[in-house]
Amino acid sequence: MSSNFDWVHESFLVKLMKRIHGDDAVGMASQLAYFFLLSLFPLLIFLVTLLPYLPISQNDILNSIGSFAPPESMKLIEDNLTEIMKGSRPLLSLGILGTIWSASNGLNAIIKAFNRAYDVPETRNYIMARFVSILLTLAMLFVFVIALMLPVFGKQIGLFLFDALGMTKEFLSVWIALRWIITLLIVLLVFTVLYWIAPNKRLKCLTVLPGAVFATCGLGIVSWGFSFYVEHYGNYANTYGSLGGIIVLMIWFYLSGIIIIIGGELNAMRSEKNNPKCE
């Protein structure tokens, strides 16, 4: 009667924990946190260069990041973004390629973590592997910009349509719900593309959905839970002083890295189960 549950316990949960331990997911998450931190501000610099050409503002970027990042880290991000806005234009015009290269460090680290999850070597040469990470970085930025533009154009289109139907007053409540759903779908799309293209292994797009769904839900839950803890119980400012914001940001990146890597491990397990003789 309990054999089915024993099978689930032994062949899935235990195997997943063994993979997480064997692939040193905790150590890889630490590396991801480091490279995420290095990539954050180059990404913001690149986004700032696009602001004059897009119907979005600095506040739109901050509000989007604030949907996930802990409040204590937002002051650090906001202050640095303000400084970037003040005097970075000459640097941007000369060093945009270097900025993109630096921003791709986080994606490059993710590629290495996924290759370890699938237990495949990186046969692509250094230039090709870095090109893939840069391409993924640009793709993620494109999706992020689209996500920022949706509230601008989506609200205008929605107001027009709802006004034509005589439902303008009801639109705001519907729009609030739609924005959350659209945000989740965009995050799911980003993770799906990431899990599909990043590993050095041929995969079908739909086969990576389990990991993408796990990462989307996990990132939302971890971000909300950690933000709640920092806001109500964590006293990082008292412990680390002015470094408190950086410590909180690093811990959030670390937890996010663990979620992303576990999503990759889930997809790798599914791939091995469906194709046990491959590789």
TrEMBL record:
Transmembrane helix: present as a keyword of the record? yes
Which InterPro entries does this chain map to? Virul_fac_BrkB
Alphabetically sorted, this entry's keywords are:
Cell membrane, Membrane, Transmembrane, Transmembrane helix
Q: Report how it sits in the membrane.
A: Multi-pass membrane protein
Primary localisation category: membrane
Provide the protein's localization.
Answer: Cell membrane
The residues that cross the membrane are: 32-54, 91-111, 131-154, 174-198, 205-230, 242-263
* Keyword Cell membrane recorded: yes
Source organism, top-level taxon = Bacteria
Gene Ontology cellular component list: plasma membrane
Fetch the NCBIfam families from UniProt. yihY_not_rbn
Name it.
Answer: YihY/virulence factor BrkB family protein
Species this chain originates from: Peribacillus psychrosaccharolyticus (Bacillus psychrosaccharolyticus)
